[in-house]
Amino acid sequence: QVQLVESGGGLVQAGGSLKLSCTASGRTFNSYNMGWFRQAPGEEREFVAAISLTGSSTYYADSVKGRFTISRDNAKSTVNLQMNSLKVEDTAVYYCTAAANFRSILSGHGDYWGQGTQVTVSS
Known about the structure:
11 strands; seven-stranded mixed β-sheet; four-stranded antiparallel β-sheet; mainly beta
């Protein structure tokens, strides 16, 4: 089992920045590819970003490319999402996910999920 806990959400004005973190406990963190998804009210959950086991590969949704950066620190069992130039449409609950298979992250079929952290961007 892997437990994932997100932190760092909050309220920010459009154009601002936030850094989300997800800390994992349980099984060996570096055995899992990691990713971030988000879900806005009334919308389906959507992919945001993913990172491979060692961090050598990253993948982003077109809507966040160039603004968001995913990174991981395997020594601290943490994956981060640096969000810059935030837009009102980035408002959502952000979820961290872990999967042994990278494609499972991309398809939204992660093995483990966190409880989510709210990000609200005001105009």
